[in-house]
Amino acid sequence: MPVSVPNGNDPIAVIADDPRHSVSGFTTEFIRELHNRQGVSLRDASLHDKFQATASAVRHYMVDEWLETKDKNAAAKQKTVGYLSAEYLLGPQLDNALLATDLTEIVEESLAQHGIDLAQVREQEVEPGLGNGGLGRLAACFIDSLATMDVPCIGYGIRYEYGIFRQTFVDGHQVEEADKWLALESPWEFVHPENAVQVNFAGHTETWTDETGRERTRWVPGWGVQGLPYNYLVPGYGTRRVNTLRLWGARANNQFDLKTFNQGDYVEAVRAQTFAENISKVLYPEDSTPQGKELRLQQQYFFVACSLRDFIENELEPGFDLHRLGERIIFQLNDTHPVIAVPELMRILIDEKGFEWDEAWEVTKSCFAYTCHTLLPEALEVWPTELLGRLLPRHMQIINLINVSFMAEVRATFPGDEERALRMSIVTEHPVQSVRMAHLATVAGSKVNGVAALHSQLLRDKVLPDFSALWPEKFTNVTNGVTPRRFVRQSNPGLSALVTSRIGGGWVKHLDQFDGLEPLADDAGFREEFRAVKAANKERLREVLHKRDGIDLPEGHLLDVMVKRLHEYKRQTLKLLHVVSLYEQVLSGKRKVEDLTPRTVVFGAKAAPGYRLAKDIIHLINSVAAVVNRDPRLEGRLGIAFPANYNVTLAEKLIPAADLSEQISLAGMEASGTGNMKFALNGALTIGTDDGANVEIRGLVGDDNFFLFGMDEPAAAALREQGYRPRSIYESDETLRATIDLIESGIFSGGRGGAFGSVTSALLDEDRFMAFADFASYLEAQEAVEAKYADQEAWTRSAILNVARTGYFSSDRSMRDYLDRIWHAGPVV
């Protein structure tokens, strides 16, 4: 990889100290890979062969720096960040690797000389769907930033054979298909079976007496599997550091029983292999069954057991004093999924390393910190003690002992307050005896953080108030961020070039430099160039959706975008009610078609396979789209686009094209959001509630450049407390009533009235997230959107100010906050 030095507008001017860093040098690598990896000549190579050879050749440019990074880390003996996450939504890797190695132009020219179009090669890449949404995308941003900042980091997770399902629509209904992202293999991974880790389950515990006469406990497992490490390279931008993402795949200890096979029982011969591989088979197996719940717990323990063992055995020098482990590693628990790592480290230190309980607990507390990503009680994991004790008997013992000690501390601090003790207990008796993983993480973690200012406040005041009263110093905030490399520089080349032409290219690593754009919001020439970039991005999206989904986006429309996981609290229903309301007003003659602002609403959302109501909402959206999009009375001025299988690849084209960003969750429900940041950084205006990071976005961009609506969190809480009655709002609001009645009339279901009764009944009878309460305010805000969009100069000015004032939302800044407030680690240059 080239050495980089500052130079004018470009943050890295390359000195080609690597002879391969030339067109001819890359061509040699590319042809070698075609021959040696793919086994084909250039003449016979398929597009897939060319992608594999290109990716493998680019990877070669990072390997030396990866090995060099490992050596530097070993020599420096500084603290490493061990990021424990069940999800990593990486997105396609080729462009990211080309950007990090500064090879884009070289590769493009090299391939062109052989009649190969890099754009076509890019399209062959299948992104690894190893995440469900924001949690996994955040993890990917964070490891990118740490590499760019020269901070030692190992991301630990699971190499799911099948990632988040591939979504298709059949008659408007969501249908899940297996995500076969590994069907043609990944060119980005190294597997190291020689470093496999043994992971055990079930069995029982027993006491024994060691040679000193001390009574000890050991775990006698019932069965086990091996964890194979698959290493992915995480290159920094403008640096020689290449960190590691280590994903674990499960393999049976004895994969094949030859004797059984020769007896003719072919299924039984490979039963152990099938059983073991189920652990890393699918991201978030459906857990509505006991078997599904058990598999999820197996997954969680599997990857943290592999990760802790890997760091202790392979990353520390021989003879390292584990009493000092907290000086060398901080394991960040990315939500509750990895929290079983706490009793696992205690087990290793006590049962295997001979530590006394108290010294093991002090070490453990120094090695973990916990990020809570939710305010929904149902999202805070709780495991039945029966399941935990059966699958991990020693860990259940350790959790009980931690809880006994913790309860003694609580009762000593708050004498006589038994209700508080019961509320805080790690083990609860109701409704069944269970372990509350968020409580365990909070007790063991050196710090607990939320992911936006409002979220962190609510985390302290409403989710974990007893803990914040006991340990106020433990709680802090780190507002999320996104990597500007992928979500501006890579995904929006037009905007990147325009910005760099005016303020230089240093913003790619220092996004706060975006504030230099603010004076340009009043420059008519810059506004015109900015609009031209947005128009080009819309045209690019138009081509992508036509080719990918057969969707034809109309020209000249306001592009109104709502892309996120389908959940009631995110309120896709509220957005849909707005569309149906506009349609109803035209049908009833309350509004002339020519008065409609031409608008296309783009949805992108997957519903969890077992989430019935969310899937019904998807069906309703598609059904409304089918009617609205073909109604000639609208004269093409209102439409819905719902491309299936929204993913990072599509996000990179959709976000830069958006005009309006929908961030409309009920206040107090969204932890932070990162989509809201991506849209603002790419020049979309936000319509949103005061929820999550919306609060901070609005504070930075200003009220004039943000469309605020709805209740704030205290108002929503007060309404809920006094008794929320959505049907009374329906009865009193003529526009809302007409909207709901139109849905129930059967117009969107071929005349079958009540076909979407599950959705309308959920709104009328409960409306858990108060869409009705915010409906009128939302429509009023949308009228403000239309008025502003009619004045394109004013809209463009606000869009530029959104870009200029949101540099704060870089994941580099988030990482600095973690390093300073939580991890107390630094770079190794």
Automatic annotation (TrEMBL):
<dbReference type="GO" id="GO:0030170">
    <property type="term" value="F:pyridoxal phosphate binding"/>
</dbReference>
<keyword id="KW-0597">Phosphoprotein</keyword>
<dbReference type="GO" id="GO:0008184">
    <property type="term" value="F:glycogen phosphorylase activity"/>
</dbReference>
<dbReference type="Pfam" id="PF00343">
    <property type="entry name" value="Phosphorylase"/>
</dbReference>
<keyword id="KW-0663">Pyridoxal phosphate</keyword>
<keyword id="KW-0321">Glycogen metabolism</keyword>
<comment type="function">
    <text>Phosphorylase is an important allosteric enzyme in carbohydrate metabolism. Enzymes from different sources differ in their regulatory mechanisms and in their natural substrates. However, all known phosphorylases share catalytic and structural properties.</text>
</comment>
<comment type="similarity">
    <text>Belongs to the glycogen phosphorylase family.</text>
</comment>
<dbReference type="InterPro" id="IPR035090">
    <property type="entry name" value="Pyridoxal_P_attach_site"/>
</dbReference>
<dbReference type="InterPro" id="IPR000811">
    <property type="entry name" value="Glyco_trans_35"/>
</dbReference>
<dbReference type="GO" id="GO:0005737">
    <property type="term" value="C:cytoplasm"/>
</dbReference>
<dbReference type="InterPro" id="IPR011833">
    <property type="entry name" value="Glycg_phsphrylas"/>
</dbReference>
<dbReference type="GO" id="GO:0005980">
    <property type="term" value="P:glycogen catabolic process"/>
</dbReference>
<comment type="function">
    <text>Allosteric enzyme that catalyzes the rate-limiting step in glycogen catabolism, the phosphorolytic cleavage of glycogen to produce glucose-1-phosphate, and plays a central role in maintaining cellular and organismal glucose homeostasis.</text>
</comment>
<protein>
    <recommendedName>
        <fullName>Alpha-1,4 glucan phosphorylase</fullName>
        <ecNumber>2.4.1.1</ecNumber>
    </recommendedName>
</protein>
<feature type="modified residue" description="N6-(pyridoxal phosphate)lysine">
    <location>
        <position position="678"/>
    </location>
</feature>
<keyword id="KW-0119">Carbohydrate metabolism</keyword>
<keyword id="KW-0808">Transferase</keyword>
<keyword id="KW-0328">Glycosyltransferase</keyword>
